[in-house]
Design goal:
Blueprint: H1 6-13, H2 22-29, E1 30-33, E2 35-38, E3 43-46, E4 56-58, E5 65-68, H3 72-96, H4 101-104, E6 111-116, H5 123-139, E7 146-151, E8 157-158, E9 164-165, H6 168-179, H7 191-200
Parallel strand pairs: 6-7
Antiparallel strand pairs: 1-5, 2-3, 4-5, 7-8, 7-9
C-alpha cells in the first residue's frame, strides 16, 4: 500500500467521500421532518402531513427527525456499501498496526535520516532493534526518495556522508551496515544531540 497518512487515506476512502456518512444516507432515503417559523402566524409550525405515514429516525446529535421513504432494496444497498466500508477500515487498521508500522508509523517524508541511539541495550534487544530497522528499510524506505543512517556515538557513525537516493542496492547496503554495527560502541552525554544535529544539517532532509 502507498505510504499515505490516515487523514489523506480518509479523504480518498472515507465515508464522506463515498457519500456514506449518516447525513448523506438520510438525505437519500427520506426527508427531514421540519419545524419552520411562519411569519403570518408568528410562531413555529411543524409539518405534520407525514405523521404516521412513514417510519421516523431521530438523530441523537441534533435531535432532528427524518421521515424514511426508501424501499427495502435501497436500504439493503446502503447496508452492503457500509459493510464494504467496514471491511476496508479493518484492512487499513491491520496494515497500520503490522510489521514496521507498529514501531515507526507510516513514513510520509520523501527524504529522511534515521538516528540510531542504542544506549546500553542488552544483546537480545540490540538484535531486535537491528531487525526492526532492517524491516523499515525494506518495507517503507524503499518507497521514498533519499535516506541516510546515523549512529549516536562518541565518534559519530554515518552510513553515508549525506542522504543517498533509494535503490535496491543502497537499501541492501544499509542493511549490511546495520548488521555489522558493534553493540558496545562508546558514547558520551552529548552523543544523541550531536547525532540529531548532524541529521538536521542535511539540507535534503524533509523532517
Amino acid at each position: 500500500q502507498p505510504l499515505v497518512s490516515s487523514s489523506k487515506w480518509l479523504q480518498l476512502h472515507g465515508l464522506k467521500r463515498k457519500k456514506l456518512s449518516l447525513s448523506q444516507i438520510l438525505s437519500q432515503i427520506g426527508f427531514q421532518h421540519r419545524k419552520d417559523y411562519v411569519t403570518t402566524l408568528g410562531k413555529l409550525v411543524a409539518s405534520r402531513y407525514a405523521d404516521g405515514l412513514f417510519p421516523q429516525y431521530k438523530r441523537a446529535q441534533d435531535g432532528s427527525i427524518y421521515n424514511l421513504t426508501a424501499k427495502k432494496e435501497l436500504i439493503l444497498h446502503f447496508l452492503d456499501c457500509l459493510m464494504g466500508a467496514i471491511e476496508l477500515y479493518k484492512q487499513r487498521m491491520e496494515w497500520l498496526t503490522s510489521e514496521s508500522r507498529q514501531i515507526f508509523g507510516v513514513i510520509q517524508e520523501r527524504c529522511i535520516v534515521i538516528v540510531l541511539d542504542f544506549g546500553t541495550v542488552a544483546p537480545a534487544e540490540f538484535d531486535l532493534c537491528r531487525d526492526a530497522l532492517s524491516m523499515v528499510l525494506v518495507e517503507q524506505v524503499t518507497q521514498i526518495a533519499k535516506f541516510n543512517l546515523i549512529r549516536a556515538a562518541q565518534d559519530l557513525m554515518k552510513w553515508q556522508q549525506k542522504s543517498t537516493p533509494v535503490s535496491e542496492h543502497t537499501v541492501q547496503s544499509a542493511v549490511t551496515w546495520l548488521r555489522k554495527l558493534d553493540r558496545m560502541t562508546a558514547a558520551s552525554r552529548t552523543s544523541s544531540a550531536e547525532a540529531l544535529l548532524e541529521a538536521r544539517s542535511d539540507e535534503a532532509v524533509s523532517s
